C-alpha cells in the first residue's frame, strides 16, 4: 500500500466527500420524492475539515496527556458540583437511576463544553 502524506490523505477524503455531496440528494415533499443537485463549494469543505475536524492549524500533533489533563480539569469540578447538588435529590434511588441521572446531565455538558475548552487551549495542547 502506498504511504501518503497527511495532506494528501486529507485531500483524498475531501475529494470523496465532495463527490458524495455532488451526487443526488433526495428531499421528501408531501406526496413524492424530489431529487435535486447539491451545490457545495469544495474549498468550504476543505476549510471545514481542516479547522474543525482535524484542527490542523498547528503544525505539531496534540499531546494526549495535555488533552486528558484539560478534560479532567473540566470534569472533576463538574462532578463534585453534581455530587453536592444532584446527589441529595437522588440518594434514595436505585444505583442505576442515580447513574442514569448523572450521565444524562454530565454527558451533554461535556459534549457542549469540552470541544470549546480544547479549542481554547489548543495552542498549549500542541506545544
Could you characterize the architecture of this molecule?
This protein has 127 residues and is mainly alpha-helical. The protein folds into two domains: 1-57, no CATH class; 60-127, no CATH class. 68% of the residues lie in helices and 8% in strands. It contains six helices and two strands; from the N terminus they run H-E-E-H-H-H-H-H. It has helices at 6-22, 42-53, 64-85, 87-90, 95-120, 122-126; strands at residues 24-28, 33-37. The protein has a two-stranded antiparallel ribbon. Helix 3 (64-85) packs across helix 5. The two termini are 32 Å apart. Residues 24-40 have low confidence and may be disordered.
Detail the topology: elements first, then pairings.
Layout lengths: L5 H17 L1 E5 L4 E5 L4 H12 L10 H22 L1 H4 L4 H26 L1 H5 L1
Antiparallel strand pairs: 1-2
